[in-house]
Amino acid sequence: MTPRSGRRVAATLAGLVLTSLALASCSGDDDATDAEETTPPPAQSTVLQPGSPGEPNTTLAPGDYPTEADQNAADVEFMTMMITHHMQALEMTELAQTRAEDASVRSLAERISASQGPEIHSMVAWLEARELPVPEGAGGHEGHGGHGSASSAPTPVYGMLSEEDMEELAEADGAAFDQLFLRGMIEHHTGAVAMAETAQTEGSDLLVSEIAADVASGQGAEIARMQALLDQVS
Fold it and tell me: So what's the pLDDT on residue 137?
């Protein structure tokens, strides 16, 4: 082999070595890139939890999500008593179908019935899922009719009408009924809002907090409408 040939072979070998190193380096980079691309980051889902009255909402991380076991006594009391509370409201709205004189009163009663019937279903389902007692008359998830008599509770609370008040309402008709109905339902709603605010402050279950927030906002707005309507029919 001549000196010139030896130099050409050495140069060729050196080039092959450099090419192999470059290919190995590129392959390593590709493997690292593939590993990075195929390994998804951990889930970082969050949920917005309604705040208590007057307080801002809070954002919960995945590890902070409430579970079914997170309910406390305030949650159970709210769901149980609100079912009974709603049942009496449905009794009152049933009376309005045949006794109310003002079309706006009848329309209001229909809206209350349409919203509170499904809420009873949700609250009963919540109690049943936890194998907790369901108020008498609500076990069949009745929304209108056949829901038992909530007015016969021994100690009416949170704005519920007494048995005597319900009897007076049932005996009234026309304009007299409209006034009694609106006054009674305003008192009824005021009690519901107070219950909801307590549940939001003292409860711990996320679903209960959401239902309580809906009750507080929805019935709070209806109180204002009913007061305006009462001024018209009085």
Answer: 84
